[in-house]
Amino acid sequence: MQMKLYPLQFEPILKERIWGGEKLKTLLNKPITSKITGESWELSTVEGDVSVVANGNLAGKSLNDLIDLNPDALLGTEVYKRFGKQFPLLFKYLDAREDLSIQVHPNDELAKKRHNSFGKTEMWYVMQADEASKLIVGFKEDSNATEYVENLKNKTLLSILDNVNVEVGDVFFLETGTVHAIGAGMVIAEIQQTSDITYRLYDFDRVDAAGNERELHVDLALDAINYKKIDTYKKYNKELNQSNSMVNCPYFTTNFLPLDGEIEVNKTGNSFTVYMCVKGDFELEYEGAKFTYIKGDTILIPAALKTYVIRGKASILEIYIS
Questions:
Q1: What does pTM read for this prediction?
Q2: E strand segments, 156-248
Q3: Per-residue pLDDT of the chain (322 residues; tens, 9 = 90+)
Q4: Within 13 Å and on the Cβ side, how many CA atoms surround 227?
């Protein structure tokens, strides 16, 4: 069955988190009602959290429905060939009012074996950061499982992990196995493989409203961790009206598109494209129809939409699969 496709937006899937706050509403216009909303899942096919179309004639249909109806047109010929009817990426905005737990994600092989899931390679774009905000990304120096367990037991794990100060516009690429944590006081756009598999290593001894500590996954993490010192920070250009490469990995390509004026976009049809508007606002025109977007919007451009125009003054993350 063929269907008329257009730029798609989806209802945000809002997640309360012990570390969440209210910035997703105040900064990104998300319809939160809780004071501890930590995540807005913008595009997801994780079981139990499948995105539903919010705009146009297809409103009310799930992302899985659309893929089932016409996988080539929505996903793209190459993406469909590689992943079948699975949507391979998950897009989120995160608000860290407090520090997130220190965690790690397994690679594809471990995730498949243990959880029948993809691994979780991901990247972060810092949209807002309070003064002195920090991230934990990997080890200060090469480590090993013995040193890691010893420091975990002695509650000195932070002493061997790398802390970095962050500013708006910073980009970090976290391959599977990278020990990491988002620090308090920042809003982040996150792009990752479709997976909700997280091994929590340390949670700063926090307890929930009932006085319970969150579960740790120390044993599972041991052979998932990359103990080498790695560089996660990504430098990138910011040439106006150009797609500036940020991250190019087997799972996704992300470009930075600083828009000031009007550009015509021409695609091959091999992959869908996702735009995350991280600053400003813009308009997209396709076959005479115009769609407007503001900061915090996430838009799925089906692969069948090969030529369109975007115009405005905005900073946009452009994501697709190479």
A1: 0.95
A2: 161-165, 171-174, 180-182, 186-193, 199-202, 244-248
A3: 568 999 999 999 999 999 999 999 999 999 999 999 999 999 999 999 999 999 999 999 999 999 999 999 999 999 999 999 999 999 999 999 999 999 999 998 999 999 888 889 999 999 999 999 999 999 999 999 999 999 999 999 999 999 999 999 999 999 999 999 999 999 999 999 998 899 999 988 887 778 888 888 989 999 999 999 999 999 999 999 999 999 999 999 999 999 999 999 999 999 999 999 999 999 999 999 999 999 999 999 999 999 999 999 999 999 999 9
A4: 12
